[in-house]
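Human: Cast an eye over this sequence-structure pair and say how the chain folds.
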Amino acid sequence: MKLKYYFSVLCIFPLLVYGQSNTFKISPYVDATTNIKDGSIEVGPQFMVDSAHGFVIRPSVRLPLTDKTNNILQIDRFTSTWRGILAMQFTSDNTQSTGPTNRNTIIFQGEYGSSDFKYYLTGDKSVESRQNKSSYAFEIKYINFQTVGKPHAKQYSPQLRLRYSHDWKAQKEVGIVQPANTNGIVTTTNLIISPPTVTPTLSPAFSLQYYPGKNAYSYSPTIYYDLTGNKGSNNPFGNMGRLRVEAWVFYYPLITGSPNFKIGVTPFLSVRTHGSDDFRPIEYGGEITIKIGTSFLQFF
């Protein structure tokens, strides 16, 4: 059994690595892209509108990888949760034949999606309520990359991100005590008994990616500030704010060439600046991440 399990891991792991983020060339100016992240799959074409100046347009659709009931990928007209995405990227490369490398990238992304929500107001599973809600988000990123053209050169990449989201979320399940059955046994069923809610969020973030040039590690101090508004509104400034500080250290097992696999670890400190939420005013802990199919110093 152990030998069978070992060979199963050897066979499946390359498929998982290969399936995280892929680009397939269709024509000199069109690629097909797939990306698996956070339980969703994102697919769509990528158009190189102006390859000399790095102007790229990426329309795509994001769908959940699994259905809770059937545990399958569902892509058809009955899909209850989807999101359409339009991203535009422009890169200005000021690198000369000699001297330092300096590259600037701006990315704008708009998202719109629809989700079906089911809940049971009376706590009776036979009386189902259903709502379809539309969510949207806007995001802008700025990425700068600096280095010099020599072996073991240091690399810097300051990155900014500003994201606004208006996402509908399902409420949490609660335990509902069911009537006793014919044997007198009382059971509890977990059900959602409240309709979905929406909370507007504005999230600016800054990260400084740094690679010293001589080992398999890079360093990424990062700051987030999340602002949330009142439920049901569009204004993200009316409720709560949290400041979060992270200090990532990334390890690259395959440092040669263009590594796209890295393992990261960080402590974090989260401070509530105003308002109230379900957490303590000061939270702290740690995180571990594995990123596959990502650029060397890409963070946001």
In short: Confidence is low (pLDDT under 50) at residues 1-19.
